[in-house]
């Protein structure tokens, strides 16, 4: 086995262990049981094709949700996300191309390298998404009144599968309803009074 393969496989093992630890922590702190997607999340490569946990999927609208979506459009969040995805694709092509040409990585090594870049990039992407979600919540809450916003998020909290903040950063593009409620209470307190 080449030195590069040792590095790549060691990184995969570390990733696997960290993901298992995160699942254990999640079970202990939040819901007391594993959910049916745990297996897909902990397996490297498999988790690349597994979609992020969604939010607002079963919501039929309401003043706050509509104002939130409108704020996303006005703040051009969709364009920001697509630009980031485009930038990531370019970064991957350049990095994998360089690894193939200069380090002579074979296809399996390139796949593993892609997976590792993707796993790290997803964390950064989720953080930017979270900032956008908080921003859209803030704008929406100003438009519909804070009480309406808080009630909408409280109703979402009841429907949502409970997650810790750390889990949300790793696997979701939306903060949990609990995180959003906390943020809206803090940021809107002064400006909406
Ligand atoms: Zn949103």
UniProtKB/TrEMBL annotation:
Belongs to the peptidase M48 family. Binds 1 zinc ion per subunit. This is Peptidase M48-like protein. GO terms for molecular function: metal ion binding; metalloendopeptidase activity. The keyword Repeat does not apply. Its cofactor is Zn(2+). Residues 59-186 form the Peptidase M48 domain. InterPro entries: Peptidase_M48. It comes from Hallerella succinigenes. GO terms for biological process: proteolysis. The chain crosses the membrane at residues 6-22, 87-105. Keywords: Hydrolase, Membrane, Metal-binding, Metalloprotease, Protease, Transmembrane, Transmembrane helix, Zinc.
């Amino acid at each position: 086995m080449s030195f590069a393969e040792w590095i790549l496989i060691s990184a995969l093992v570390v990733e696997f262990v960290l993901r298992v630890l995160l699942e254990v922590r999640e079970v202990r702190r939040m819901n007391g049981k594993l959910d049916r997607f745990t297996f897909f999340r902990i397996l490297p490569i498999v988790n690349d094709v597994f979609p992020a946990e969604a939010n607002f999927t079963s919501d039929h609208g309401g003043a706050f949700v509509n104002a939130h979506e409108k704020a996303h459009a006005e703040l051009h969040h969709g364009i920001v996300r697509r630009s980031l995805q485009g930038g990531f694709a370019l970064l991957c092509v350049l990095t994998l191309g360089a690894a193939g040409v200069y380090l002579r990585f074979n296809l399996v090594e390139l796949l593993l390298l892609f997976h590792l870049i993707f796993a790290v990039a997803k964390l950064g992407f989720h953080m930017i998404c979270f900032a956008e979600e908080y921003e859209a919540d803030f704008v929406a809450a100003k438009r519909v009144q804070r009480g309406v916003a808080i009630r909408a998020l409280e109703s979402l909290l009841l429907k949502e599968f409970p997650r810790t903040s750390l889990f949300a950063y790793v696997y979701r593009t939306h903060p949990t309803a609990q995180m959003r409620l906390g943020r809206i209470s803090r940021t809107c307190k002064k400006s909406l009074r």
